[in-house]
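Aim 2 progress update. The chain analyzed this quarter is reproduced below.
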Amino acid sequence: MNNVIIVEFALYFIVIIGIGYLTSRTKMSHSVFLLGGKKLPGWALAFSERATGESAWLLLGFTGFVFTTGLAGIWVAAGIALGIIFSWLVLAKKFMHETDKHKVLTLPDYLAVNFGAKANIIRWVSSILIASFFMFYVGAQLAGAGKLFFTSFEMDKTLGIVLATIVVLAIAFFGGFISVVWTDMIQSIMMLITLCVLPVVALIYIGTHDLSITQSLATAGDSFNSWFGGTTGFALGILFFNNFSWFFGYLGGQPQLSARFMALKNEKEAKQGISVAIIWTIMAYTGAFLIGIAAIAMYNQGSFTDVETILPHMILDLMPPWIAGILLSGILAAIITTANSQLMVVTSSVSEDIIHKALGMNLSDNQLLWVSKITILVSGLVGMVIALTSDSLLYLIVSWAWAGVGCTLSPAILMTFFWKRYSGTGVIATIISGFIFTVLWISTPLDSIITSRFSTFFIAAFFGILFSLLFPDKQPTKE
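Predicted structure tokens:
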């Protein structure tokens, strides 16, 4: 182990937990714990939303995907970037206004209050959907931490997962949403530094060591040097939709991202957030794509037993220890921000949507606050167990969760926003069909042909429209 990197990791842990503790000293109510009480600036929420949205998937999963795919990997970045830009330009202000109008704290509760007759059923099915997939999502982040510690220090992955779990739980437990957003903001900047500095250094290395990206792409595989993966006709359409399909999960259905929109204070703060989020997205995805392409020139295919460790390997190979420690901390930052935010989503679904609203338990504000904190601890430990017992790849787990939650709830949100004939039965049909078809789809070879991210969105939308027309609300319940 390199002592310099170990010291920098230790300092990083201390600083992040310290920020979480200091921000937790805000006077805390249940609503402030879950959504910040409309006290956070738009630029901080934008940094937090971006760090939350990308996670270890961007730094480990996407860079590894580009390394094994080549130029065609650009369509994943394009789909995601357009989805992020659309969500901020079109949906962020809508979420802000709807939250103020209905006084809600969670995405399931927003869906529920618009369809009063079916409100509790909607809360139950949406909360079960979120909890089911997000436990695996949290586990994927913690598994990413284990990979990082193993690659950086040859540390036992189990110990790495346990350490990351402790930090994640400490931040979320202390101050809830406010602590998570402020630590996210710091970590979002760290992620951006890693994604912008490393490709520049890698390209300089390639240029000074007489390596050729063009030649490496040509020799890596038949399709690596083609923007469309060497496909034509129907196969080209499948490749495009499979890679571009991440777009559909950004259309309002990711509760950990939509919470940042709901927490916006006013139009001015929303405009700040839009600018920060779009700039961050363009810089981060350009950097991540270039890292994957540069890795093709630097390493042979088959050089790694796990391609999702390419980025930390590149950092250790190219950087002096004191810089490597900072950049590796950027990967850890991505893991912690997303795991924190996902824990907050699960917590809010349990304490607000189920215990407070669906079950109607008469608890004081302080009791609800402690229910949320206990839920954080339990959910974090479950996520840790999943990380310790699963060998699944980050890219695949996040892809499935993206379909199961984002591509299921996105059509529900869009139709609630923009279609007056959408009914409570239609919402329930959207959520149940999205859940069932995602599980069925990923359990069959169909997912390798057409990704569940694409199929789930349109299947859930189809059933939502069909059941809304067949079973309209007798009296309009949404304004």
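The mean pLDDT is 84. The domain at 3-110+131-394 is CATH 1.20.1730.10 (Sodium/glucose cotransporter). These observations will guide the mutagenesis experiments scheduled for the next reporting period.
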